[in-house]
Amino acid sequence: MITYLFLAIFLILIAYFIYFQVFRSEEVINSPYNARADLYAEHVVRGDIVSSDGEVLAETVVGSDGTESRNYPYGDMFAHAVGYVNNGKSGIESQANFRLLRSHSFFLVQIMNDIRDEKNQGDTVVSTLDYRIQKAAYDALGNQDGAVVVLEPSTGKILAMVSKPDFDPNTLEEQWDSIVSDEDSSVLLNRATQGLYPPGSTFKIVTALEYIRENGVNNNFTFDCEGSVEADGQVIHCYNNSVHGQEDFKTAFAKSCNSAFATIGLDLNLKKYASLADDMLFNKNLPTSLTTNKSRFSLGTDASTGEIMQTAIGQGKTLVTPLHMAMIAGAVDNGGVVMKPYIIDRIENDGGIAIRNYKPSEYGSIISEKEAGILQELMEGVVSEGTASALSGQSYDAAGKTGSAEYDEQGHSHGWFVGYGSKDSYEDIAIAVIVEKGGSGSSSAVPVAKKVFDTYFNTKS
Amino acid sequence: MIHLITEFSKYLMIILFAVYTFYSYTVLKQKDGSPRAQMIYKRQTFCIFLLHLDAYTVIFANTMEFRMWIFYGAQVAFILFLFFIYKVVYKKSTKLIVNHMSMLLVIGFIILTRLDFTLALRQFEIACIAAVLSIFVPLLIRRMKALRRFTWLYAVIGILALGAVFVFAPVSGGAKLAIFGVQPSEFIKILFVFFAACMLYQVRDFRQILITTIVAALHVLILVASRDLGAALIFFVTYIVMLYVATRNPLYFLGGLGLGALAALVAGKLFSHVRVRIQAWKDPFANIEGGGWQVAQSLFAIGTGGWAGMGLYQGMPDSIPVPESDFVFAAISEEMGGVFALCIILVCFSCFLMTLNIAMQIKDQFYKLIALGLGTVYGFQVFLTIGGVTKCIPSTGVTLPFVSYGGSSLLCTMILFAIIQGLYILRQDEGESDEKSNTVQKSKKRKTIKTAEQTPGKTGRPKNDRNDRSGSGQRKGRKSRFDEEDIDEIW
């Protein structure tokens, strides 16, 4: 018996060791605390990072005297997504650090290089980023600050990730001191994954779903909007004090009526509301290997009337990242299923032979398929008769929700659009756009989304 | 070019060690001493020397220091000396354990030379001293029939030494471990096993079990108070295993484990350093700058090394805290590869199996318990260190026997194995008398049976036993003497 007991514990040791090497080690050794990367660099020239459509996004240029320098052909455009390697690491450069410093060149070539004391060429990281879309999003955002995330709901592939203000990774070393010494500067922050913004009216997606869960789809909701609503001395205004008049649930959502949704909020079961928000990945680490911040939602059962009304329309204490909103939009499009977002598609050796493919992986359903269908209908209404009508009548079908998220007492707001588009023979895409200080979502964020949709759906990939 | 040599040698070492390990298990099918088994042992020896030469070629290629070759030569001489001791002086010793000892020592020398030449040299010196000392150990066991008389001497020395550590030792690495560079807990392990064996080898009533358990618990508690959790666990598990085997009562075993789990829970609540270890085990990366640092670095090393390893001098084992002792397994895994590391686990398990095998074949309950206890000490220590380094279990800070740097650890392990070898020789003696007795005259056989009937303790006379309790040490000594003569005669 003692023999078997010890046999068992030794088998556990062996099994755990194998498990670690096979399943865990990749994630572990990629930690920025692992100083061993530099060792590889002694024998390997850091590999390239390329886009899914073959554009080189980062490469190492070896001078005639053997000095190496990292070159980013598109400069600022991929600054946050691709990242940098000097002064610490970020983006794909950080995430795929070990991959870039491993060489799977043909083994005879490696032996020859060893004999001649030359370095091997590191593997190439093929990202999911699509140059065309990245460029469209980057150009559309123009000189405004903000972020754009575009992903494929059915796989979780990130097709574009733009954050502004940005920096030129080619000259980052020279700029470093001034960036770091300027405490107000946030150019290094990837707003797409780490920027925390009030969601504004885009949060009505969550509020609407909770209302439908409690009252059914065929609720007899009607509301007469007078431009503002008052409860317990707290007043909520519609955007620009617009008077929406008599409206049903779908219209209230399409027109993004604050008065209606603040009123809805007061009827909600706050416990269930908070648990729905948690299910929709608020207060959680997003299921992705990208560096993200947790979105926040907090509404205790003892919350004040004002707080409830504010929260219901996406103000209050709620904060979200653009990536998170794109994932929610993607889940609505994808029948409630969230695919884990990823940015590295595969690793190839320098000869283009795939070493490793990263497969789409499902996080799970955050809402039911039926609920996704209901939300789809609501979000289509926003395009057909609501605040995102600029997207109607195109070669593709778009759906979404706009938002104008107030960030100061004077009522200045960031513009939001989150949604998705589809067209026959194209994969659907989901998008989240935030334009800082852009005012209404309709006027600032929707045009950006439109340019991205146009580029994606009107050119053959 | 150097890189190429290193790479090539890396794979050669992995292959050699894998072949060696493979033989460690296939040889179990052969009858010990058969020509086929002898041939396998020879091949294993060949693997050891080739792996050793290969490693030092790499070491020389990377350091270009001639002293490495001198050191290498000295090690070869040492290994030959070790073989000589066991092969010639003690003809009947088990060759497999000798091979394992040599292999693990060689691996230790290799990785220590790579990490720190001075440490490797010190380790080598200690190994030499230990080898010389261990010449006499099997001899001692065969001649000293009185070993089982010193029951309370073992316990008193053990508790005094551990107590002294608790009172006087400076805190190093969060625990009180050593006085004047000597780590008594390593040696007390052996004494403790002897004590438990003395108490338990003919125990039948609950009172004696209770006394033994209290003394054992005292050992464990002092160690816990000194924060030497690894040693405390080893003592604890060893005692539970010995108690179970001595009484054959699974209740003691399960009860002991349950009690242990309860104690662990209480310790987790009471002691912050236990909590830190557990936290570091659950998620070393959550507090990587604090308690998680060691384990995280170890995992970086193992993970980065992968299956094939980085090659000697190609990794960063220095970034792991104490890579030469508690975390030597991570350093080996990083530079010599995950396959190599797995082979170490398998070889250690083979060592453990051999000790159990010996224990099972010994008829004398006293020796059986010693072999079993020492085997458990060894096996569980391997589990603790490798499990801790790989984050399979919380890290407890114990050394990998034979491989880790540490004078006390190495000396103690070599003596431990010398004792086991001594017991093995004893078993062989038993076996030989067994063969003899088959051909021996019948008249003697009759006498034997008669003696056996008279054997106290074996037949168990509880009343008498209780009366004799007061002078138990002395009395038991006499009894056991009797037993031994019986054994000689019975067989």
Q: Main sheet of chain A, how many strands, which sense, barrel?
A: 6 strands, mixed
Termini Cα gap of chain B: 64 Å
- How much of the residues of chain B is beta strand, in percent? under 5%
Runs of chain A with pLDDT <50, length 5+? none
Spatially, the strands of the biggest sheet of chain B line up as: 1-2
Cα Rg of chain B: 24 Å
Helical proportion of chain B?
over 70%
What's the alpha carbon Rg of chain A, rounded to whole Å?
25 Å
Helix content of chain A: 25-40%
Inertia-based shape of chain A: globular
Could you name the ranges of chain B where pLDDT drops below 50 across 5 or more consecutive residues? 439-491
Characterization of the model:
The complex is a heterodimer of chains A (461) and B (491). Chain A is α+β, with helices and mostly antiparallel strands and 461 residues long. Chain A folds into two domains: 43-127, Alpha-Beta Complex (Penicillin-binding protein 2a (Domain 2)), CATH 3.90.1310; 200-458, Beta-lactamase. Chain A is built from 17 helices and 19 strands. A six-stranded mixed β-sheet of chain A has the order 4-3-2-6-14-15, with no helix packed on it. Chain A is globular and about 80 Å long. The termini of chain A are far apart. The mean pLDDT of chain A is 91. Chain B has 491 residues and is an all-alpha fold. Chain B has a domain at 442-490. In chain B, helix 2 runs parallel beside helix 4, helix 8 (206-225) runs antiparallel to helix 9 and helix 9 (229-247) packs antiparallel against helix 15. The N and C termini of chain B lie far apart (64 Å).
